[in-house]
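Minutes, project check-in
Item: structure for the 417-residue chain
Input as provided by the requester:
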Amino acid sequence: MGSSTLINADRLWTRLMALAEIGATPAGGVNRQALSDGEIAAWRRVIGWAREAGLTPSTDAAGNLFLTLAGRDRAASPVLLGSHLDSQPTGGKFDGAAGVMAALEAAVSLAEQSDRPARDVIVVAWMNEEGSRFAPGMMGSEAFTGERNMDAIRAARDADGISVGEALDRLHQALPDVPHRPLGFAAGAYLELHIEQGPLLEAADCAIGVVTGIQGKKTFQVVVEGAEGHAGTLAQQERRDALAAFARMASALHAEIGTVDADIKFTIGRVAVVPNAPSVVPSRVSFSIDLRHPDNAVLDAAGARIAALCQQNAAPCAVTVTPLVDAPSNAFDPRLRASIAEAARAQGHSAMEILSAAGHDARHLAKICPAAMIFIPCRDGASHVEHEWAEPDHVAAGASVLAQVLRELAFAPGIAV
């Protein structure tokens, strides 16, 4: 089947742009953070589109949204496909949302054009992939796969002191007509479409990225404790300046960890200073560390040095280093990757293999079932920014490839991967 017969590209683009109106920023981006009023509104809109096509919504204790197209054998392991609806505070229209809307379009087109599939097809929007409001990210997929405890997830708080538990309860209260299902269930396969969030596809003038895997990632929260003092009266040698200690740590970390090799990615992305007053010696600094590398051995060795480097540069302050995320590099299912490449070839789209430098929920699904990802280009490789952009033709191409692979899995008597 040609790509034009597999999906309705105009409907997909129209819905994607309509979704982008929820949380729209003046600069053309999206601020729709996890479990916010904006995400609740996005749920309502997406659920409405799904119900129009006969898909049934449900949710779970982790705040994941499921939209089910019922198959002939309800006991067979379903095909899952989707991404996430939450964004960065100054995010774009496509990160996450394109994957959910492409999955919904693939499932809706399947319902419109085909006999009932052999197994359930479930579109999913995972809770808090971004980790911008609540840290760490990917809470929904980690809870679904049993990698993170719900008590720990519910206890996490945002900058305003609101807990995930409080926000989850509010989400579910706002949508009382969405039934609950148990947390976690067997899946036959998982597919996720996403913008690349990098420049390689655009540079190669390539429409489809067949994602080989995701590079490893570790994150840490570091807290430096000093003591407040008057900026005009406290002598330098008597100070326990938490910001000065942070500066030494940051310099040492960048000098050693940030220069391991050309593939290392070391980032201090968030810093909070207390009391953050012009004439007061800072008493407390908390900061985040994001460390990534495709080679797990290199990643582990670099991660093991972080606590020691912080301790070596802390005096006369105290420091606590708390690991948050430890996600090794993974490879996606080779037969699903081959199906994606073949679908792209059959539809006349250029395709290339590509490693994901960013993390995605598919990383966690790959631990419980065959999983794969489809990348599409984004302009200048820019993502997590308000000017993030993907061309309509690329969105349609990716969704059409997704739809073809979905049909192969949905009508198979057994998941043939």
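Outcome recorded: The two ends are 21 Å apart (CA to CA).
No further action items on this chain.
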